[in-house]
Each structure stands twice: as structure tokens, then as C-alpha cells.
Design brief:
The complex is a heterodimer of chains A (about 150) and B (about 375).
Chain A (H helix, E strand, L loop, with lengths): L2 H21 L1 H8 L8 E17 L6 E16 L4 E7 L3 H14 L5 H29 L7 H4 L1
Antiparallel strand pairs in A: 1-2, 2-3
Helix pairs in contact in A: 1-3, 1-4, 2-3, 2-4
Chain B lengths: L8 H16 L9 H7 L1 H11 L1 E2 L1 H10 L4 H12 L4 E7 L6 E6 L51 H7 L27 H9 L3 H12 L7 E15 L8 E17 L8 E10 L3 H13 L16 H7 L2 H9 L6 H27 L1
Antiparallel strand pairs in B: 3-4, 4-5, 5-6
Helix pairs in contact in B: 2-4, 3-4, 3-5, 4-5, 7-9, 8-9
The chains are: A alpha+beta (about 150), B alpha+beta (about 375).
């Protein structure tokens, strides 16, 4: 695979992993209901809950410092065809992490990917995008419009 | 010194039963769920996460319920819980410049790119008790929404000043920061450890220290260059993957205080910054942290160290409310042997002093 193709493959995988990490077990389950059952998998690690140390930067752009920890759930699985999937997500959601890891393994298979993207990842991404957009619209409504003395007269 | 004392098991068990009853309160009033606390006591949850130094709203809500709303006790519970979990590594530094902003205000520029965004603030409320909230079933009005338009990026105010050469830049670095949860603090601690300590420090302590600088104890002429609050993405770099992935979003508050600096032999007169970054939406805490961070940079900037807020060891060693509470509350534990010896000393001193006093009275 050329470097550019490999970068594109990594970017695509980063996208679905980010979407699955934010979704949670219930939302993923809801999207899987219409699909054939997931193939069997074995757990390689977890699902397990631990901590990640969050870091910030002094002044926002200076040297890193430790801001505080957050809970994280992670899981690694292997499918019968040997494909390995990983998941890390913020918070405590064992089932969500396991589902995300299985889907990560399946999504790496080019034959399965389009159907799963259309049925699971794209709709979850759209919901997440709408939540962000809604917050941005509420924030925009609280943006101050200063009136100058000239147009107050 | 205090000694282990046996006995009292039944009394302790009964005391804890009573505690559970008191926690529940009047059984004719519906019980609080942790979901209600997480969603409706959000700023208490944010404080417990910040000072418990663990971002997890559900755990913080549970801790608040268990602690009967005693936030320092809740912080203690969360700190204790985190010690039971393994550490999966550290995140990449969060990029607050890419924050999805809910609130962003500047006291130094009226018209700035991205604008002044008030967000869900207590500011400009009249601080009159709202009895409508005392009635149940209160449904807030729908929140107005506006198309944000094209101009939504919020560049940093400090970068605007830095571009003009009027703001001391931060030293770019990717140095691995020290971690006070792994290695006890020693002094001088340095700025990364100071910021970690302040980010989890007691809010009341931070506020008082910050207030003392405003009142002239280490005066540092602050302006809120920028205060922003919103969501940032958390990224980690798992070694088994070899590329960074997003694991979710957290809400943080950041404060950039801008302070005048007269210059030194090596530095021209310019502005310097104090930095505050906290988990959650606790704005007072972010502002206090920024003032104390700037005060603690006195030595680095060649300023005279004359006030408590400028004294690194004083501030960092008294800022933690779990440590402070532990040392204070241990005074409740049995000190029977200790006290017996002091009692004997005082009696002996009185016995020695008594004949002299009698003689004086006779004269």
C-alpha cells in the first residue's frame, strides 16, 4: 500500500473509532438491530475500566502538565477470521467498548465496511454532529451585538 | 501520638446505620437519584470532578449522594476510588484553541474575532430567589438558537498580543511533565507540577489566595484576557495502534489572565500571563487558578517574593483539601496516652508553682 493510501486508511479508521467511542452501548445496539447478528469473537483484553491522565499545556500552548485523570474503558477482540479490533472510550461502558472493538475489527474488512458505515457509523456521526451544531447555535444566540452610540440615537 | 483502641464495634455499626437513615432524610420525600444529581447539580459535580481530579460525572454524582452533599467528603471518596483503577497512560495535551465554545468573554477587547459569547451564565442574573423553581414541574422555555454563521473561530487573545510582541510567549515544549500523584512534591516544584496542584486545589483556598493578590499581597494588576468554556476532544495514542484516536469530549474552563510586567534586564516591558485550566464549568476556580499561577511565577520573572500567594511551598503544600482534612480530622482520633502525659506535666507545673504563690500571698 502506498503511503498516501495508508494515511487515508488510518484516517478512515480514526473516524469510525472516534464515532464509536462517543456513541455508547445503547446507541450502537439501536443501530445494530436491523443488521444480521455480529459474528462471534474472542476477547483479547478487557473490556476493562481504567484511568487516563488528561494533559493540558501551560498558557494553552506551552509545556504540557497533568490536568487530572478521567475514566476510560478499553477492549480488544479477535474475530474468527483473525481480524483484531480495538476500542477506547471515555467513561465506564464495558458493553459499549466491546461492541466498538468488534465493529472496529469488522470495519477493517473492505467487503463488510460499506454496509456497516451506512447502517451504523454514518447515522451515529450525524447525531453527534447535530448535537455539536445545536450547541453552536445556542452559543451564537448569546453572542453580544454591541451597539455604538451612533446607531443608538 | 494516637493509639489503636479496641472495642466500640457495635457503637460504630449503629452510628453508620443512623448515618444511612439521616442521608435518606424524610422517607415521605422521594429519594434523589444519582442521575438527578448528575443532571441538576452540575456545578457541584464539576467541583467534585476537578478536586477529586477524576473526570466522571456519574462517579462524582454518586460520591455527592453518599457524602450527603459534603463536597470535600465526596472529593475524598472519588480520590479513594481512583486508586483502585489501573492507569492506561496519558492523553495527548488537549487543544483548548479548538474548543467548541459555549461561553467566551474577554475583558480586554470589546470587539474581538469570534465575539463575546455569554453562554449559560449566572452573570447579569439579579440574584433574587426564584420561587418558580420551588414548584415542581417547572419546564424552562425553549432556548433561542441562531445560525452561528461563518465567523465562529475564536482565536486566542494571548496570541493576538503575542503577534504584536506585547505578550511573553510560552516556551514550546513536549517535555514529559512530573506527576504529583506518583512522586511526592519537592521544592522548587516548577510550573507543570504547580499547575497540576492548582488544577485540583480546594476552590475556597484558591479563591482566597487569588483575592489576597488582588488586595495587594503580591499585587499583579490582572485583566481577564479571555475566559472560555466548552468541549474539547480527548485524544490518546495507544502503542498497539501507533496512531492517535479520539476517545470522547470533556467540558473544561480556561482562563488567560493578562498582567502587566515592567520588564527586567533581559526582558522588555510587556504583558505576562497567568493560566487557569479546570475540569468542568467552574469559572471562579479557573480565574482563581490563573491569578495564583501568575503570582507563583514571581521568582521566574525576577519579582520580589513578599506575599503568601507568591510562595510556592506555602501555596502548594496547603492547597489540597483531602490532605488538609485528613490532618485536621485526625485530631478526633483517640489521643488518650498523649493527653495523659500532658495532663501530668500540667499538674506537676501547678504543684511546683503552688507553694511559691502561697508564700507571695502570705507576704
Amino acid at each position: 500500500m502506498s503511503a498516501a493510501l495508508q494515511d487515508a486508511a488510518v484516517a478512515e479508521r480514526q473516524h469510525w473509532m472516534g464515532v464509536l467511542a462517543r456513541a455508547g452501548a445503547d446507541a450502537i445496539d439501536a443501530r445494530l438491530k436491523e443488521l444480521p447478528a455480529l459474528p462471534p469473537h474472542v476477547r483479547l483484553r478487557g473490556p476493562e475500566i481504567g484511568l487516563t491522565m488528561l494533559r493540558g499545556r501551560a498558557g494553552g500552548d506551552g509545556a504540557p502538565f497533568n490536568l487530572g485523570e478521567m475514566t476510560v474503558t478499553r477492549c480488544a477482540v479477535r474475530l474468527e477470521d483473525g481480524a483484531v479490533g480495538h476500542a477506547y472510550l471515555a467513561g465506564r461502558d464495558l458493553r459499549g467498548a466491546e461492541l466498538a472493538a468488534v465493529l472496529d475489527a469488522l470495519l477493517q474488512n473492505p467487503a463488510r465496511r460499506p454496509a456497516l458505515m451506512a447502517a451504523v457509523i454514518d447515522p451515529l456521526a450525524a447525531e453527534q454532529q447535530e448535537r455539536k451544531a445545536s450547541m453552536a447555535r445556542k452559543a451564537a444566540a448569546t453572542r453580544v451585538r454591541f451597539l455604538t452610540m451612533a446607531n443608538m440615537r | 501520638m494516637y493509639v489503636a483502641v479496641k472495642g466500640g464495634e457495635a457503637a460504630i455499626a449503629n452510628a453508620h446505620s443512623w448515618l444511612a437513615e439521616e442521608r435518606r432524610g424524610d422517607p415521605s420525600v422521594p429519594e434523589l437519584s444519582t442521575g438527578q444529581i448528575r443532571e441538576q447539580m452540575t456545578l457541584a459535580v464539576d467541583r467534585v470532578m476537578a478536586e477529586g481530579s477524576c473526570y466522571d460525572p456519574g462517579l462524582a454524582a454518586l460520591a455527592i449522594k453518599q457524602a450527603r452533599g459534603d463536597l470535600i467528603e465526596a472529593i475524598f471518596l472519588l480520590r479513594a476510588y481512583r486508586t483502585t483503577l489501573p492507569r492506561f497512560g496519558a492523553s495527548l495535551p488537549i487543544d483548548t484553541g479548538m474548543m467548541r465554545v459555549r461561553r467566551r468573554v474577554s475583558a480586554t477587547y470589546k470587539d474581538l474575532p469570534g465575539g463575546q459569547i455569554l453562554g449559560p451564565t449566572f452573570d447579569y442574573t439579579h440574584r433574587l430567589l426564584d420561587f418558580a423553581l420551588a414548584a415542581e414541574g417547572h419546564v424552562p422555555l425553549p432556548v433561542p438558537e441562531t445560525d452561528p454563521g461563518e465567523d465562529t473561530a475564536c482565536p486566542r487573545v494571548t496570541a493576538m498580543l503575542a503577534d504584536e510582541g506585547l505578550m511573553a510567549p510560552e516556551q514550546p515544549s513536549d517535555a514529559e511533565p512530573g506527576d504529583l500523584t506518583r512522586t511526592p512534591l519537592s521544592y522548587p516544584a516548577g510550573r507543570p507540577l504547580r499547575l497540576q496542584n492548582l488544577a485540583r486545589a480546594d476552590e475556597g483556598f484558591l479563591l482566597s489566595m487569588a483575592y489576597s493578590t488582588q488586595r495587594g499581597y503580591g499585587n499583579n494588576h490582572p485583566f481577564v484576557g479571555e475566559l472560555r468554556q466548552g468541549e474539547v476532544t480527548v485524544e490518546i495514542l495507544p502503542p498497539e495502534l501507533g496512531f492517535p484516536i479520539e476517545i470522547g469530549d470533556i467540558t473544561v474552563t480556561e482562563c488567560q489572565m493578562v498582567n502587566q510586567f515592567n520588564g527586567s534586564r533581559t526582558e522588555p516591558p510587556q504583558f505576562t500571563r497567568g493560566y487557569g485550566l479546570v475540569l468542568g464549568r467552574t469559572e471562579r476556580r479557573a480565574m482563581s487558578m490563573a491569578l495564583v499561577d501568575r503570582a507563583l511565577r514571581a521568582e521566574e520573572l525576577g519579582e520580589e517574593i513578599a506575599a503568601p500567594a507568591q510562595d510556592e511551598e506555602f501555596v502548594l503544600s496547603h492547597s489540597d483539601n483531602v490532605e488538609a482534612t485528613g490532618f485536621l480530622e485526625h485530631l478526633k482520633l483517640p489521643h488518650y496516652v498523649d493527653f495523659q502525659s500532658e495532663l501530668e506535666v500540667v499538674r506537676a507545673m501547678r504543684a511546683a508553682a503552688a507553694p511559691a504563690a502561697l508564700r507571695e500571698a502570705a507576704e
